[in-house]
Amino acid sequence: MNAIFKRPDSLKDTITHFCPGCTHGIAHRLIAETMDELGIADRTIGIPGVGCCVFLYNYFPIDVLEAPHGRAPACATGMKRAQPDKIIFAYQGDGDMAAIGTSEIIHAANRGENITVFFINNSVYGMTGGQMAPTTLLGQQTTTSPYGRDFKSEGYPIKMAEMLATLEGVAYSTRVALHSPKHVNQAKKAIRKAFEMQINEMGFSVVEMLSTCNTNWRVSPLEALKMLEREMIPYYPLGVFKERTGKDFL
Amino acid sequence: MAHIVIDRDRCKGCYFCIEFCPRNIIRISQEHNRIGYFPAEFIEEERERCTGCKTCAVMCPDTAIEVFK
What we know:
heterodimer; A: alpha/beta; Rossmann fold; seven-stranded mixed sheet; two-stranded antiparallel ribbon; 10 helices; B: alpha+beta; Alpha-Beta Plaits; 2 helices
């Protein structure tokens, strides 16, 4: 009788502070499993943004740098330039990356920094109480858009993965979802690919993960998974938007 | 023959495992755990029906499930 599935070595035995059913926990586990498989856990540095992901240092037995709000790609740039042999990943939410840190992520991607960014898109500001984020869907009710988001006053939701894929420095840009076993397995392959891009020095890689926030969506965890499939995926299509196969930028 | 072990005190009761188990051999416990949730529990009587497909463990956000085969 062998264990065919257990907690990866790169994930600490700490109980997470996430709400029940939060898919942040799945994303954390996938990253830890990938670090184990690639054997890079001893030379990886994680840089979480501000948000629910901020306690990343409690869950991974790796070095972690806390970045100011939205500035994780900028900190990752400095870290990678100072220590090019290390594997650097930033882990950001949508309020952190798509609102406050928009300029940092766009310029880090445009410079083609050899870092990996994991982008958790749950369409609200999770930690601060469910305010409207740039990725909030049209018509979605949040605490700061109680009548639903209206494009006339708040604009349209940003599609970050597509937007970053247009930049020349980006080697890999993809969007995955975390709402079913099939999609979780696809997400793991995307995370592995993103780390491999960095190991092979191909350039900037970003994985957008559609995630749930059942607390701020005011639904049960299971209903949140169904809402993700029903409402988010039609607007945020899944797929690979850019994948560089060789070092053609040189 | 396969079976799973659910860490009662890690489980926060999202019940993703119950939703996605293809054999329906996980249920909600009658007793709450140390952090106050009613955790999922493996139905030991149905142990022979577990195929070790890992679907429950893949979906568990709290990494509370170990699968043995």
